[in-house]
Amino acid sequence: MEKRIQKQLTIGFIFILIIGGLGYGFVDYFFIVEPTCFDGIQNQQEEGVDCGILACGIACEPAIMPLSVVSQKLIEVRPGDYDFVARINNPNSLFGASRIRYELNIGATQRTGTFFVLPGQTRFLIIPGIRVDVLADAILEIKEAEWEKVQIFDDISFSIQRKNYEAVNRNGVFSEFESVVRNNSDFDFDKVEVGIILFSQPESDQLSAGTDNIVAVNRTDIRTFLSRTERGFRVSWPTELPETIRQDVEVLTNVFENANFIRRYGTQERFQKYY
Q1: Closest by CA position to 268, among listed 160, 155, 189, 154
Q2: Which domains does the chain have, with CATH numbers?
Q3: Phi, psi of 65 (to 5 degrees)
Q4: pLDDT above 90 as % of the chain
Q5: By the 8 A CB rule, do 146 and 93 touch?
Q6: Which of 62, 126, 120 minimizes the C-alpha distance to 90?
Q7: With contact defined as beta carbons under 8 Å apart, do 50 and 40 qualify?
Q8: What is this structure's pTM?
Q9: 70-113 pLDDT, tens per residue?
């Protein structure tokens, strides 16, 4: 009797082991997802999507932080006619945005558009010529950004050779600014954006980092800007401006857009490298 019971127990134990093994295999096959580091899913010991030192042997990229509007100002040029300026900061040191869509609302008036920003850059966003029937608070919203990770930028720089601001009164122009920009790089560019910012306080003033002391802004483009050459430009305002102490010129080009790059040393090639 005891041998019979022992035999039954042994058979039952073996049966349980077989069923358990089959059940574990079923669960493991259908429900347990192994870290593959290329499946586009964060699983197991992955610290991010397909990354992590323990799971994949590679560190995860830092999270992309949103752009911040450091300061902004709506400037009255004349009754009902306004210019808008904002300082935009990109806190990401590895990522820039090739195309950022914004929406500016001033009461019932809406303006939309796009701009770009480099890794770690703080830049001006200038929106001139806004017609506002009923003045209200300006609300700037960053709607979406197309992020790009950039490893190396070739040496791209522009310098201001000379500049001049003066109050004039001719043909409806009351204030005028002109300057000469030099393309110091080895690249020819299809389009370079130029922003002009006039301040009422010197650079050492504590407000210079914001927009409170800005009295006027304007913008223009330089097209087909050849390497190692100089180009002049002129902008104007249809009204006499308050006294300006400082005039800044911000020169930018979209390094993410290869169509913007014409040539380097006679050949066309990419001028930015991606990871």
Answers
A1: 189
A2: 2-56 (no CATH), 68-150 (2.60.40), 158-274 (2.60.40)
A3: -85, 145
A4: 52
A5: no
A6: 120
A7: yes
A8: 0.75
A9: 999 999 999 999 999 999 999 998 899 999 999 999 999 999 99
